[in-house]
Every structure is written in C-alpha cells, then in structure tokens.
Amino acid sequence: MEQQVKYSDTEINAYILKAVREMGFEYMTPIQEQAIPVLLEGKDVIGQAQTGTGKTAAFSIPMIQKIDISCKKPQGIILCPTRELAMQAAEEIRKITKYMHGLKVLPVYGGQDISKQIRALSQGVQIIVGTPGRVMDHLRRHTIKTANVQMIVLDEADEMLNMGFREDMETILSQMPEEHQMALFSTTMPQAILEITNQYQKDAVFIKVTPKEVTVAAIEQSYYRIARKDKMNALCRLIDFHQPRRSLIFCNTKKMVDEMTQELKGRGYEAEGLHGDLSQFQRDTVMNLFRSGRCAILIATDVAARGIDVSGVDAVFNYDVPEDIEYYVHRIGRTGRAGREGKSMTLVSGREVFKIRDIERICHTRIEEKKLPTGKDIVKVKFRHSVGSALEAAKDQNLEGLKNRIESVCDEMGISELDLAATLLYQSMGEEPEEIEEERFYYDRNRRQDNSRREGKGGYGRESRYRGKESRYRDQKGRSRAREDQGGRGRYREERGSQRTRDAAQRNENGRRKKPEERRERIAARNEQGNARTGQMAVLSKKRKRGVF
Fold first, then answer.
1. Average pLDDT over every residue of 61-65
2. What was the pLDDT predicted at 162?
C-alpha cells in the first residue's frame, strides 16, 4: 500500500495548513499530491482526473500561496463551466483563506446583477472565480484588469468546450500577461483541449489520475434490469430499501426531471429538480434546500449537476443511462467523495445493457448486476426504520402517562396492546408493495422458447401443446393410411403433390378467364396515359431549348 502524503509534510503556508486542518483533511488526494508541488514551482500543469478527487484544492492552494495580499488587484483567475461550480469553488477558497486576512475572493457569473460585481471589483479583489461569458463581459468593460494576473486556471475544461465556450476561453487566455502560469484540469482530454494547451502553455507537466486510482474503489456500482414502464416503481423501491439521507437522481432530459420531481413529491418524497431552464434564484433556492438537508433527493440533468459539490451524498441513482459515457464518471463522482463510501445504482432497460458493457470497458471498472429488492425486503427495512425512529424519539422520555392511556383505550375497545401496536405500524408503513418483474432481453426470451420446444412444450403454453399433440396425431394417421397402400409413403406423397398441382392450375385458369374484355380496356387506358405524358415531356423539352422558360 502506497504511503499517503500529509499536507503538513509539504511547503504549504502555515495559515493554509491551519484552515485545511479545520476542514477535516490531513492527507492529500492523488491529484493534490502530484499537482501542488509542481504548481508551487511555477510550472504549467495539465491535470486529468475524475470529479470528486480534490481538484479545487489542488490548484487553489498554490494560487493562494502566491497572492500578494497588499496588492488589491486581480492576481488569479479561475474559469468554471457553470454558475454553481463557480460559487462552490469560491466558497471552498474562502474556507482555505480563512486565516489570510485581507485576501478577497469574488465569484462572477451570469444571472446576477453585473453592477454589484463591478462595485465589488472596485473595492479590490485578488482571486476571481467565474464563468467564461461573464468574465468576458468584465474584460470588455475593463472592470477586470489582467496586468497583475500571475495564474489562470481552467477547471472542467472539457465541459466548457461542450457548452461552446472555446472562443471565450481563447479570448481570455490571449489577454493574459506574457509572464503567467496556467493550469488546466479536465476529466477527459479531447483534441480541442490539446490544441489549447499547445498554444497557451509552455512545457506543461501532464498529470493523470485514472478512474481506477480514485473513488471507484469506494463506490459500490450496480445495475438493475427493469422494463421502462416499471422504472419509477423500481426507483422508489431502491430509495425505500437503502434509505439514503442525501441522494442524487440523474435524468437525460429536462422534461424527465420535471415529471419525476412531481411524481416523487406526489408519493411523499422530499425531492427537488435542477436543470438549465430554472432561473438563478430558483437554482440557488434548490441548492440551499439540498445542502441544508431540507431536501433529501435532488433530481438533475448532467449539465446542471456539473456544479454540484455537496458532501455527504450517500447514493447516486441513474434513472437513465447517460448518452455520453464520460457523463457516467461525473455522475458517480458525486458520491464517495474524499475517501468516503458511496453507492451508484443504474436502471437499465432493453438494449441499454450494451452501454453498461461499454462503460465497464472504457472506465476500467466492474458494474455488478443485482436483483431488485422484493416487497418483503421493503417491509423489513421499513419496520426496522419505524421502530428505530420511535425508540430514538422516546429515548429519555417519561412514557408512564402514555402507557396508562394505551391500557385504558385497549380495555375500552377490547383489543390487546399488540394489536394496537401492529395497527399503528401498518398505518406508518403501508401495504407490502407488489413484486416487479425483471425484464428479460430478446435473446433471453428466444433462448427460453428454444428450451421449451426441446422439452416438447412448444414454448407457447397449454394451447400450443394441445396444437402440437393434434398435429402429431394427424401425421401418425396419414402415415398409417399410406402404409396400407401397396405403394406406401411414396404413393401417398405423390397423390398429395398431384392434387396440389391440379388445384393451382385450376386457379390460374380461372384468373385468365375472368373478364378478359375489362383487362384489355385497362391495359389500353394505361398505355394512352403513358403516351400523353411522353408527349407533354417532349413539348416542355422543346420550349426549354427555345428559351421560353
């Protein structure tokens, strides 16, 4: 086992170490262990690592350490793809700079009044965290000046490219001073990112932490084969069985997010939806509810979730298998963060199972197929949860008065205390849910039918078995009748064949004799129509040659 590096064993500022220690971190993650020393040396860095590996601290700690607090001008710029990610990165940096008085961090993003941001910038800000579009707006207005910028960071660069920010990114990079440090962090490395690094970085150090080295080991990954019509019931069953305190559900479309939010709320779950069509105020409200614990389930699309950085997510549910395999890595990275354990569950329908195989192959991971919990399993979990919650609530409480009331009520109604307790539990737990059948794929159904036919069942139930017996009886009767003739089977087949030939010849003869006059008239009419069309085409061709059209 490799020995982990402590923050205290590096050349990090004492004020930063104190803040990191208060945040509860002692050891560096793999990306921090490799990137922080290189960035402290002043070199450019290309970092490829999965979401949830501590990238924010990997680039923010070296940036903070190089800031001159006495200078109240921008010295570090961090570009993020979404508003949520910019806000959370700024909040993380504020925690790290808790004991560095005089160092100011400002998030700038669209959807917020730009005049407020301009006033904050005029008061002096050393680190700016923002989206490319809003940073471009400030550069055009000259409210952000880059003369003193020492370091610029592109966080989640692949997602910024997918969102169409390449021109903005290149414009911002071109306005940096000649002597500056650049760090780029991305989950994937498409060709467009490599082109940017070749143009704007000098002798960059490439650091790669593969998915196998990060949180995959701490995340229990599984999938369930469910028919599309049963997906909602299966999702609710998994939530009831695992009882996560905080969970994320991913959908591929905004419409599905809205529909699922209404459905889960209707079933009594504390759920909220998040996607790009929400206003900034609505997005902030949803995220505050989720962070504070007043909302236990957050339903989101992939793009909206790129800004979610909330600790304590116990489980991730993939209601839809992601269209892009890269999104799977980002999804499961929301749980099992900072070395904690987490669960990732995917609902698979039809041919989506082949996408699971592609994910396993590309991400170098193993996703285990599991059976959906039964109705009895859900009853057991609900029973333990209800009893446990009741015992926890009644702990250190005086229950003598309630016990006396229960005894008097039971005597009046003529029931036992056990019957009353069972009734109350039934009221809180509800009925046992119906069983959900596992979806059988096409090749499974074919294989099952083939096996049934080999066993003589026909593969289609009692009626087909009866038809099979009837056909076998007819065949046996025909063979026995053929054997009675001197010619045997050959003569019997010959007679059947000759009769079929005579029947076919009679049908052809009847068809030829049927109303020959009408057939001749129809043929003549079709020929006349064809000749007329040919004449029209010839006239049009002559007019074109003459220049009429």
1. 94
2. 82
User: 187-191, 480-484, 532-536: which has the highest mean pLDDT?
Assistant: 187-191
On average, the pLDDT of the chain sits at: 80
What confidence score (pLDDT) does residue 497 get? 57
For the chain, give the percent of residues with pLDDT over 90: 33
- 3-state SS assignment for residue 311: coil
DSSP secondary structure code for residue 439 in this structure: P
Cα distances (angstroms) measured from residue 287 to each of 76, 79, 242, 305, 328: 27, 21, 23, 11, 22
Q: Looking at the DSSP assignment, which residues form a beta bridge with residue 271?
A: 297
In contact, 135 and 80? CB cutoff 8 Å: no
Q: CA-CA distance, 80 to 127, in Å (whole number)?
A: 13
CB 270 within 8 A of CB 297: yes
DSSP 525-538: HHHHHHHHHHHHHH
Long-range CB contacts for residues 529-534, cutoff 8 Å, separation at least 24: none
If one compares 408 and 15, the residue with the highest pLDDT of the two is 15
Which tens digits make up the pLDDT trace of 282-313? 888 888 899 888 899 999 988 766 666 677 78
Report helix, strand or coil for 77.
strand
Distance, in Å, from the CA atom of 59 to the CA atom of 55, rounded to the nearest integer, reads 7
CA atoms within 13 Å, Cβ hemisphere of 311: 9
- And the tokens for 508? 């052809």
**C-alpha dihedral (275, 276, 277, 282), degrees to nearest 10:** 70
Task: Label residue 228 exposed, middle or buried (CB < 10 Å: 0-12, 13-18, 19+).
Answer: exposed
Tell me 27's DSSP state: B
DSSP H helices in 177-279? 191-200, 231-242, 254-266
Element at 281 (helix H, strand E): helix 280-292
What does the alpha-carbon distance between residue 44 and residue 181 come to, in Å, rounded to a whole number? 6
* Average pLDDT value for residue range 221-239: 91
CB 378 within 8 A of CB 432: yes
* Helix%, strand%, coil% for the chain, nearest 5: 55, 10, 30
Alpha-carbon gap, residue 398 to 312, rounded angstroms: 34
Closest of 423, 44, 363, 4 to residue 203, by C-alpha: 44
Distance, CA of 37 to CA of 54 (rounded, Å)? 15
Per DSSP, the three-state class of 154 is: strand
List 543's β-bridge partners, or say none: none
How far apart, in whole angstroms, are the C-alpha atoms of residue 350 and residue 126? Answer: 53
Structure token pair of residue 453:
């036919």
pTM score above 0.70:
no
| Encoded tokens for 179 | 């002597």
Nearest residue to 309 (alpha-carbon basis) of 238, 235, 248? 248
Strand partners, 182: 152
More confident residue, 449 or 368: 368
What DSSP element (H or E) covers 249?
Answer: strand 247-250
pLDDT tens digits, one per residue of 389-412: 777 777 777 777 777 888 888 888
Residues 478-520 have pLDDT tens digits of: 554 544 444 544 554 555 556 666 776 666 665 555 556 666 7
Tokens, residue 372:
């959906």
